Amino acid sequence: MSKIDSSLFMSPVKQIVIGNIRKDTTIEDLKDCFSQLIKKHDVSFRIAVDKKGKQKGFAAVSIPITLVNDFLNYNGRNMKGHRITVVLSEDFKISKSTRWQQEETGVFKTPSPNQYNSLRSMPFLYKLFDAGVYLTHPKFSKNALNVIERAQSCGVKKMVVLGANVHQCEQALGLCRLFSGSLFCTAGLGPKHAPFWTDEAETQLTQIASSGHCVAIGECGLDLSTDELSSSQSQQLYAFEKQIQLSIKLKKPLVVIEKQAHIETLSLLQKYKDQLVDVVVSFVPENKAQIVKYVQEGFYIYIHGNVFLPQNSCIKKWLTDSDEETNVPFDRLLLGSAAPYHSVFRCTDIDWYPRQFTDDTQHKSFDIMLKHCKDNYSEPCSLPSMLVMMCCMVGDRFTPRSLAEKLTQNAVTFFHLDKSVGEEASVKVTGEKFCNKTPASHHRRWSFFVVTALVVVAAVVLLGVVCVKYSVLDKVGALYNLL
Asked: In this structure, are 98 and 135 located in the same domain?
């Protein structure tokens, strides 16, 4: 079995299945077997059982990614007279009738450990694409898996993981390999890390960007919002231009962040405009003219949680403006949570959110956001709330569903996801088509209906044959006349 380079990951959770165990194995037996590996880690073993509570001969455990290789080395080890198998959960077929017995509660729990690979969301009205999230941020170091699951359960089916330095980009690539087809990444050096631009850093970023999981170069750009950052302006400009050239060389779109550096950023982008594939700019404008200028150059605009804060009124006014000269090009907007930054929870508009829609699934999304997002902390699960607030700003021009489809298609177009990405081909999607393949349970349900219908037809035919052969109808008619 192939080994996993743990240095590419921060600390998301990986699922391991332990097979060929005796059917009288206890959780204590499992802890004793792997005691050397779990001394400093709080892990939870689960034993697979059927509906009657009988063990099925295998168990599962959730472990930090850094322990994966060590656990896989236990494959073939003897435990209670059996040579156990230790494999990744995606390499082990688990029936959907499986229940899981846990020591903590003594009850059987679902879902299976494969859930992180086939997450099912509630039946939301629309599917979303988070065009920018910082999943490698230290705030997500201990709960990356849970954050991704919550986002999926709220209808956020695809995410682009942004990196601000080489290390974060490597971690993002590692996450994308774990969640191939659901997560994509970028490769870049942000303004704050521009002084660390070297030939070695350029080589590393080029290697990451050459991966099929990497869909853009960035984030990169200029940040002159403080005196300290302004002192590194020349270094920022140098790193920014180098990444623009890398974007042109690899023919990948460019993700730009700009803070109080509108003239400098625009000037450098205009220099390479005709050679760039596509550009999206994340910034807080000082006036509406700055937005219009970027749009006139054909660049995309990032809409994130910070846009909805009371002090950032320019983009809100731009979205609500119906002036033909500053008309909003909705095919040039990308929606990104920018989590864990820019918490939408701080927005005053949040007060009216629950009253806008009556659909229960949207209320569930709102409740999940209220439970997990705080004033200084955001998660991708907040994206549906951002969509609703944005929809209320644009008025009658869009419904939440149509706006979600538009923004999703924008992200698919910008990141060129109609081509083969990573280890699997991504499908160009719109609206309800933006979801996973039809689950096997759906096919089994239809098979059950078909078989049932055939059995009923066969029974009717057989009954008719019996009635004809033994003249049952004539005898019943005679009896009826007699009565």
From this structure: no
